[in-house]
TrEMBL record:
This is TetR family transcriptional regulator. It comes from Streptomyces sp. R21. GO terms for molecular function: DNA-binding transcription factor activity; transcription cis-regulatory region binding. It comes from the Bacteria. Keywords: DNA-binding.
Length: 222
């Protein structure tokens, strides 16, 4: 019944438009009552995004199953790939939803709220992994936002191709940027800032002022 309601809704959205379609129209086409609709979907907006609650639950469970040996950035990147898998399960539906969302501001706002919940799930996991580290909370929020931004950039490119491009390759490429920037996060101990090491070759017997001058000259070249 749930799938029938989604199918009926999108048929009407495509034929009449989102704003012109009511819940009564959807249940009439699906052959069910209003009570059945609201048993599955709290609102008309929810029927446009029927799988996000399940995906968010899967992501939360995946992050919770991680171990201390997992690289945090890799773990949240793999968690983001669960969203891609959800979209790729039904490319036709995903492309239709993408086109519909672009046309309806209310749906775009709803989608952004869903994306924010994914980002908070990733950030929550990272905050635990970076607990006690210098700027741990800041790093968690920045990495989570970067993973979501990279994933969504690749996902939108795939949707704009009508689902014909290689979604997995695009997302892997995008998340690679995040791994390059944030990989090797401080997780096994406190990471100290790298110190500059300057090697100066001076003539034996040179006065100390000359040695100091050469050091200052070398540092001034940075």
């Amino acid at each position: 019944m749930r799938d029938a309601l989604v199918a009926a809704a999108f048929q009407l959205f495509l034929e009449r438009g989102y704003e012109q379609t009511t819940v009564d129209d959807i249940v009439t086409l699906a052959g069910v009552g209003r009570r059945s609709f609201f048993r599955y979907f709290p609102s008309k907006e929810d029927v446009v995004f029927p799988d996000h609650e399940r995906c968010l639950a899967d992501m939360t469970a995946f992050l919770g199953d991680g171990t201390d040996e997992d690289d945090p950035v890799q773990r949240v990147s793999d968690a983001a790939r669960l969203v891609l898998r959800m979209y790729a399960e039904n490319p036709t539906f995903s492309v239709q939803r993408y086109r519909l969302t672009k046309k309806v501001p209310g749906l775009r706002a709803y989608e952004l709220s869903v994306v924010w919940r994914y980002e908070r799930a990733l950030a929550g996991y990272l905050r635990e992994r970076y607990a006690g580290r210098r700027d741990g909370s800041l790093r968690a929020d920045v990495v989570a936002a970067a993973v979501v931004a990279a994933h969504n950039n690749a996902l939108r490119s795939w949707l704009r191709s009508d689902g014909h491009a290689d979604a997995t390759a695009s997302v892997d490429h995008a998340l690679g940027y995040v791994r390059t920037a944030f990989g090797g996060a401080p997780d096994g101990g406190t990471t100290e800032e790298a110190e500059d090491v300057v090697v100066v070759i001076s003539r034996r017997g040179a006065p100390m002022w000359r040695v100091v001058q050469e050091i200052e000259s070398t540092l001034g070249q940075d």
